[in-house]
Amino acid sequence: MTTTAVPEVAVAAVDEGFWTRTRKIGAVLLGLGVLAAVLFGALATDQQARFTLSETDGGAALEINGTVGAILFGVVAAAAGAALLAEVPKRWFTVLLGVGLVAFVLSFLCWQISAAPAGRNFMPMVNMVRATFVLALPLIFGALAGVLCERSGVVNVAIEGQLLMGAFSGALFGSLSGNVWVGLVAAAIGGAFISLLLAVFAIRYLVDQVVMGIVLNLLAVGVTGFLYERLMQPEADRYNSAPRFSNWEIPLLKDIPVLGPALFRSNIFLYLGLLLVLVIHIALFRTRWGLRTRAVGEHPTAADTLGVRVLGLRYRNVLLAGVVAGIGGASYTLALYSFTKNMIGGKGFIALAALIFGRWSPTGALLAALFFGFADQLATYLGAIGSNIPSQFLAMLPYLATILAVAGLVGRVRAPAADGKPYIKG
């Protein structure tokens, strides 16, 4: 009796059938495009939808008739979906998906802006870009903390607690010292403290890493909430009045239209966040440390046989992740707000989603964080122009975008093979 070997690619194709992931997304995008062209086009008005290149309604602007724009961009989104449904080459998938989603959002905005009351039918692009990056900042730092941990094989569900402890420590010690740099260092130490607990219990005592992360989040909420009520609330002038980092303007770059005022007239946290994305990406994929980190996250036993100190590397990377997340928490209290109880408000879990959406890559995490930051700012903007969309739906828009992105767009992803698996040295 003879047997015939069937290539794995052919088996995968047979198992997947006609409705591949690309075709499914294409069909959904096609439906969204048709919906946008028909529904948004019918609801839009003949007022001009203005996208100003400044912070106000004055100056240069990109304008388009509301109805025409809603229909036109809906058609573009439908065309991108149809192309995906036709199973275009894989290299075009990301481009067409991006074009389709952007077109759908623009169709929606043409409807909303043109239907806004007179005097509010414009979108200031500088404010939108600036606010998107500001809202994405804690997500960027949190997602980078997740990358450092999970590339090393340690699940970091404690990002929420690390951000919160960093925000609290920065506010408290910045207020006591009257110095923003002392506050920044304290925030880094606060985040590292939560990471140290995670490292000790997960690496040394082999406690379930997901459970430990949840416990640490609750610990951070409890400790900071208690100290806030005992210290900060009764004596806010002494314990909760930290100085703020001022904005730093970068010559020449600050004069670039839209991006200049939005990105290059900002505080240290934006520059540091973007710099960390670049540094960690290069270090992770171009250095010996990065190679060892990825090896420990994928196959720690093999890394150990080659002389890599697996447990030591995991300890260092988890502590470094806490430092990064702690600085992200300080972006709240040393740049924007005074500390309040549980002020992170679930951003740590959205950062975890950005990590997955970005496929455990620093640059991918950055793009995912910006996507969620834009969704958050869009909800605020729609409320400001008096949108007829219920405020309750606008409030849940960032979280809805998170669910749709992770469940619908990210597709099949593979975490580092040893992620969450304790390593016991033989």
From TrEMBL:
Cellular localisation: Cell membrane
Topology versus the membrane: Multi-pass membrane protein
TM spans (from-to): 25-44, 64-85, 92-116, 128-147, 154-174, 180-203, 210-228, 268-285, 318-337, 349-372, 393-413
GO molecular function, one term: transmembrane transporter activity
Entry keyword Transmembrane helix: yes
Annotated Pfam families: BPD_transp_2
Protein origin, superkingdom: Bacteria
Keywords: Cell membrane, Membrane, Transmembrane, Transmembrane helix
One term under GO cellular component: plasma membrane
Name assigned to this protein: Nucleoside ABC transporter membrane protein
Organism: Micromonospora olivasterospora
